[in-house]
Amino acid sequence: MSEVPEKDDDVVLAGEYALGLLSAAEAAAFEARLGAEPELRALYAQWAEDFAVLAEDIPEEAPPARVKAALDRRLFAGERPARRGLFERFGLAGLAAAALVAGLFFVVDVPGTGVQPPENPVYHADLRASGEEDIILAAGYDATTQEMYVERRGMQDRPGRDIEMWLIAGDNPPVSLGVLPENERLRLPMTQEQIAVLQGATLAISDEPEGGSPTGAPTGDILATGPLEDV
């Protein structure tokens, strides 16, 4: 019979994962558990928030490469973990945001849809209405399936109207990603042309006639926008 990890062990493990101290195998095993254990996700989120608070008043500054290399040699005896932890990927100031991403994407199947969010999204975006704090739509790009995972949060379609999602890359015209079913999570297939411009792009949603925009461009109110950010 295998041993069940003690809660205190998981507290330490979550902190080590947040700091990027786990080996590649250990990090992969931890991430596999995140998808099925809400308590473990909560532990990780708390560590991330605590670490982020430590850096609130500290200006960001990249250390010289030689300093980082020396630290790597001393800490890891020449064997760097093959997987970068969140400490290395985001810095302390970004850990709180990373915790929110974990809370969004490490969830179980949506009842009735079978749609699963990506375990390791490459990009994510949180869309908020102008002047509002609540997220009304969250999205994440799954490089494995080349799909955009989309989660609507409390938005209601107006009678005879639909909500359509758009990809805006630089100064290019908005490109429709499709009409979004009401109150559902779904995956939208992406073309190679769309994937090529995801970095630095913006997602937007607009209120359109039933079935979507008749012109191929937004015609109704822009309800929310949000930049696609690296995870």
Automatic annotation (TrEMBL):
Membrane topology: Single-pass membrane protein
Anti-sigma K factor RskA C-terminal domain mapped to chain residues: 95-222
Name this protein carries in UniProt: Regulator of SigK
Keyword Transmembrane helix among record annotations: yes
Keyword Transmembrane helix: yes
Spans traversing the lipid bilayer: 90-108
Location (main, coarse): membrane
Gene3D superfamilies documented for this protein: Anti-sigma factor, zinc-finger domain
GO biological process per UniProt: regulation of translation
Pfam families, per database record: RskA_C
GO molecular function terms attached to this record: sigma factor antagonist activity
Subcellular location: Cell membrane; Membrane
CC annotations in GO: plasma membrane
PANTHER family attached to this UniProt entry: ANTI-SIGMA-K FACTOR RSKA
Domain of life, source organism: Bacteria
